[in-house]
Amino acid sequence: MHTTHPCIMLGSYVWDADTLPDDEFDIRFAQLRAEMAKHDWAGVLVYGDAREHQALAWLTNFIPRMRWAMALIPAKGEPRILVSVTARDIPAMKTMSFVKDVHSGWEWKWFEGFVEKLPANGALATIGFDLVTPVLYGQVEKSLAGKFTLVEADRVLAEARKTHRPRETAILRAAALVADAAGASFVAAWRAGKDVENAALAAETTARNRAAQDVRTLVSRDGGRTLEPYRARFDDKPAALLGYIGLKYQGYWAEQFVGAAPAGRRVAQRARAALDAVLMNFKAGATANALHEQARAALGELPLHPVLAGSLGHRIGLSANEGLDLRVGGASIAPGIVYALRVGGYDAAEGGAIATAMAHLHADGRLEILTRSDPE
């Protein structure tokens, strides 16, 4: 879901070496450096910013809390990270990654000094550079002084990240538990008489208290037909609750829709049945088209909820949406991946309802439900 990005990134971003130890990153770097050797690249430049940083985080555990950061990874030797903060903030930035060589990106000399140490190879690969601003891209090119050609290599990292690694899945399980607690607070606050925005703030408080690094919420003011971000309007108490919460925990995202209303709503029953149908048929090789047919059959005459934009979900991880969108004509289900699933409908008389789950399809075919939230 697209939600408002917070101005201030809170939470702890310190590298947890117990959860993601050095050897995890050794494995990831080995995959990347094998590709460097294969293509004869002198190094790789990996960009990330506060909005999108999944490639940078996967390789270095570094998550920019504001502006941008760039990892400079040579084919041989230790990597360097440039961060768009002043030198005063660098000691704090060094706690966020196993990479020891961290410098202020405002002092561009660190980039130039690093590149000069690389063998005169002719090619540097880039990852995440579709997000780089023209000004920053110009600085990179100027620093290279014509010695290297930049080669796009996003596909290389995409192949290395084809499935979620076991330690990633463990963090996603923990993130799902935080989402469960936050979702329960959302519903409990609304049932206690809070308006929808105060209910969303209660959910955010619960997530923050459990060390969430980022929290995004949406609420419905029209009975579940549409969703909108926080607007500081504390006067809406619709008859039916429909809300959304997404959160980042240790760099990984979890999300769920929440719903509550008077018992017996047909739209809520249909949403739960539709999610049941999707999960029952969620197997390796199952097509997005087939899952849509099963969901629509369970929804009956109700259309798929319009806020879902025709999608039953996607892969979730270091980004709230890592692709593999489950829309008509979309990708087939692959094992070893955690998906965020959502199915629901809208009825003009009863409002809207959406059922959600985070599901991990194991290589042996077992389906693990990390979290599930059904509309009441």
The proportion of residues in beta strands is: 15-25%
Please tell me how large the radius of gyration is.
22 Å
Count every helix, treating DSSP H or I runs of 4 or more residues as helices.
10
- CATH topology description of the largest domain: Creatine Amidinohydrolase
Assign the CATH superfamily of the largest domain: Creatinase/methionine aminopeptidase superfamily
As residue ranges, the low-confidence spans are none
* Approximate helicity band: 25-40%
Number of strands: 13
| Strand-pairing-aware structural class | alpha+beta
Structural overview:
The protein has 376 residues and is α+β, with helices and mostly antiparallel strands. It has two domains: 22-160, 3-Layer(aba) Sandwich (Creatine Amidinohydrolase, Chain A, domain 1); 166-373, Creatinase/methionine aminopeptidase superfamily (Creatine Amidinohydrolase), CATH 3.90.230. The chain has ten helices and 13 strands. The protein has helices at 22-39, 54-60, 90-93, 109-115, 134-144, 154-160, 166-191, 196-209, 266-280, 288-299; strands spanning 43-49, 68-74, 80-83, 102-104, 123-127, 149-152, 214-219, 241-249, 252-260, 313-315, 337-347, 351-361, 367-373. The strands form three sheets. A six-stranded mixed sheet has the order 4-3-2-1-5-6, sandwiched between helices. Strands 10-11-12-13 form a four-stranded antiparallel sheet. Strands 7-8-9 form a three-stranded antiparallel sheet, with helices on one face. Helix 7 (166-191) packs antiparallel against helix 8 and helix 9 packs antiparallel against helix 10 (288-299). The longest helix is centred in the middle third of the chain and has 26 residues, at 166-191. The relative contact order is 0.11.
